């Protein structure tokens, strides 16, 4: 019995296509079906994390180890500043490019602002709004004026 046959509530005109059957057999769950080829919505399960490799470090730990050595810390700062130039060339001035221009990682800026790296990521990507005070503190830490900071936030579409 194929998984497509396990969806009994579908009318004949809404039955899964062969592409749908292959998606369902890959573990996707059909959560919504309406008429039309673009109306099928699938949710794929999150793949399991890869197994840990003995003796391997995650990237945050590795960068923290490198940053302990002054020469490596300077190299990381320089690399971030160079990367900011590439971002600004392609995307214009963004919160991410301003942070990188200051030579800071999300984690370092988060620690200075008393928040989490995840919060910094959400704010840089427009998934979390921030107060005027938070914006002022952020601008102070990355050493830009509020006009520059405001320009960098113009492209954000804050989703609630």
What does this entry look like structurally?
Strands 1-2 form a two-stranded antiparallel ribbon. With 160 residues, it is mainly alpha-helical. It contains eight helices and two strands. The chain has helices at residues 18-25, 59-67, 70-91, 95-101, 106-113, 117-124, 132-142, 146-153, and strands at residues 29-32, 41-43. It is globular. Residues 1-8 and 18-25 have low confidence and may be disordered. It folds into two domains: 11-43, no CATH class; 59-153, lambda repressor-like DNA-binding domains (434 Repressor (Amino-terminal Domain), Orthogonal Bundle).
Q: In terms of topology, how is this protein built?
A:
Elements: H1 18-25, E1 29-32, E2 41-43, H2 59-67, H3 70-91, H4 95-101, H5 106-113, H6 117-124, H7 132-142, H8 146-153
Helix pairs in contact: 3-4, 5-6
Domain HTH cro/C1-type: 95-149
Protein name: HTH cro/C1-type domain-containing protein
Region (Disordered): 1-23
Describe what is shown at a glance.
It contains 8 helices and 2 strands, in the order αββααααααα.
Question: What are the key terms here?
Answer:
4% strand, Cro/C1-type_HTH, disordered N terminus, two-stranded antiparallel ribbon, 51% helix, Lambda_DNA-bd_dom_sf, 8 helices, 2 strands, DNA binding, 160 residues, HTH cro/C1-type domain-containing protein
């Amino acid at each position: 019995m194929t998984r497509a046959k396990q969806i009994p509530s579908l009318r004949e005109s809404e039955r899964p296509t062969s592409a749908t059957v292959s998606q369902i057999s890959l573990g996707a769950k059909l959560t919504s079906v309406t008429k039309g080829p673009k109306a099928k919505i699938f949710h794929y399960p999150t793949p399991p994390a890869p197994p840990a490799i003995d003796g391997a470090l995650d990237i945050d730990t590795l960068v923290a180890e490198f940053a302990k050595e002054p020469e490596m810390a300077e190299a990381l700062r320089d690399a971030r500043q160079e990367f900011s130039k590439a971002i600004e060339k392609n995307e214009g001035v963004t919160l991410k490019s301003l942070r990188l221009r200051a030579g800071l990682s999300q984690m370092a800026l988060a620690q200075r602002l008393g928040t989490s790296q995840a919060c910094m990521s959400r704010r840089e990507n427009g998934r979390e709004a921030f107060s005027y005070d938070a914006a002022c503190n952020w601008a102070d830490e990355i050493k830009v004026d509020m006009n520059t900071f405001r320009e960098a936030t113009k492209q954000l579409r804050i989703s609630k």
